[in-house]
Fold:
Amino acid sequence: MHSKETAVRYYVGIDVGSASVRAALVDGCGAVVAHAEQPIQIWEPQPDHYEQSSADIWAACCSVTKKVVCGVDAAQVRGVGFDATCSLVVLDKQFQPLAVNCEGQDHRNVIMWMDHRAVSQVELINATQHRVLNYVGGAMSVEMQPPKLLWIKENLQESWEKAGYFFDLPDFLSWKATGVTARSLCTVVCKWTYRSDRGWDDTFWRMIGLEDLVKDKYEKIGNHVLSPGEAIGKGLTPEAAKDLGLPEGIAVAASLIDAHAGGLGVIGADVKGHNLPCENQPITSRVAMICGTSSCHMGVSEKPIFVPGVWGPYFSAMVPGLWLNEGGQSATGKLIDHVVRGHVAFPELQSKAAASAHSIYTYLNSHLDLIKKSLPVGFLTVDLHVWPDFHGNRSPLTDLTLKGMVVGLTLSRGLDELALIYLATIQAIALGTRHILETMQAAGHDINTLFLCGGLSKNPLFVQMHADITGKPVVLSKEVESVLVGAAILGACASGDFASIQEAMAKMGKIGRVVQPNHEHKRFYDKKYEVFLKLVEHQREYRSIMNSL
Structure:
C-alpha cells in the first residue's frame, strides 16, 4: 500500500511577507499539513526608506522549510513554489549583496516594496507619458522597480556601477534554489514594464535615463522569462537542497508576487452548492482580495481592460491566458494597527484583552457589540468618518500625496472611542475597496463575488463590513493560508502532477465560509460612501487653497 503510486504527494509553498517568512507543506487536495513562520528584519534608516537583507530572508526560508518537511518521507515532496513581496534585491557581479543605502551597508541590499524614497524619480517617469504606462493604470507607482533603479543610479553611484543583477524578490528566491537567473512573467510584467507579447521596450529605459540596462541585452534585469508554475532548470541545486532540508533535483516553479499567489490560492475554487452569483459563471466574475499589511484586488478578464488608476492589464501574470487588473491599498492591516496602537486607550485595551485571553481585535469586536445597543454595529459611526490614505492612494486615484483624514473626533479618550475609531477605519478600508471595484466595473469588468484571504480575512468584522459596503457576497477560503496554498500550487504545477495551473487551482483551492451582505443596511452605507468621496474632494480643495500661498 505504500508504493510511490499510492503515497500522498506533498508540495512546499514558501511565502516571504513584509515582516516574516512562512512555509507550508500542502497535500494534493490543498490541505495545509504543516506550517512554520519566522520573523525577518526590517531597517528604516530614515522616513520612507525600508530595507531588508536577502541573506536574512534566505536563512529564514531554509529554517521554516526544514521545520515543515521534518518527519515526512522526502520522496513524497514533489515540488517547491515561492512567492514574495515585490521588493528589489541588488547583487554584484559575483552574486554578493550590494548596499541600497548611503551608509554602504552591503547586507542591507533589499529596497522593500513599501519604500517610497523614489518620489522624484517616479514623477519624472510619469511625466514622459510613455506607452508602457498604459499598462499600469496610466501612472507608475513609486512601489514599482524602475523608479527605485533610477534612485540607485542617481544616489548610489558606486552600487550602480558594481551591480550585476537586480532581482524582484520572488525571482531572487527561485535563483537561490536553482542557480538559474530566469525571471517570472508575473514580476517583470507587473513591476518592471515587460510585455508578454513584446518583451522589454528599449525606448522606455532610454527615455528615463537607464539606457545602461539596454546595452547588455537586459542581463541585469532578466532576459529569460518563464510563466508562473513552469519548472526552472534542473530543480533544487545540491547546495539549496541541503539548506532547505530537501533532496536535490526536486521541481522548483517560476514564482509569483505574494498577492498573486493569494489570488491563485482562492480565485479558482469550486463554488458549487453555495448559491453564489459566480456559480456557473466564468472566473472573470470574481475578484480575489488579499488583505494583510496592504491589500490587493485581483480581477481577471478574457480581453485587456484598461482601468484608470488600476494596474494592468497584465497578460498571464496570475492565471495563464487571462489578463489581470490589480487594484490596491498601500496600508490596510498596517493602518488598523497604527490607529489602534496609537490611541491613548491602547494600554487599557491591551490589559483587558490579555485578561480575557483574547486578541486585541477579538476584544474590540466584542466591545463594539456591547456598546451598539439596538443599532447594527456599523451604524455606530454615523458621525465618525475616516479617509484611509495615511500612506498615499494606490488605486484608483494614484495619488501618493494624499493623507489620512478623520472627521468627527471628540474629547473622549476611553475604550469606547478607541473601538469606534477602529470600526470607522475598517469601514474606510471597505469603502476604498468599493471605490476600486466601481472603477473596475465602469471600465468593463463584471464582478459579483469577492474572494478574501490573508491575515485580515480572519477578522469577522472586517469581512462583514466588506460584504455590507460593497453589497457583494464574500467567500473565505477553507485554508486561511491561501497565499501559501497558492505557492504550493506553483510547486504542484512544476512537478508535472497537474496538467495546468487551472487544474491545480480547482483541485487545491477550497472554499470554507460564505458571508452574505445585509441588504437592509444598503442605504446607510450608500450615504457613508457619499461622505467618503466628499472627504477626498475637501482634502484636494484645502490643499489647493494652501498651495496658492
Notes: The chain has a mean pLDDT of 96. The first strand starts at residue 10 and ends at 16.
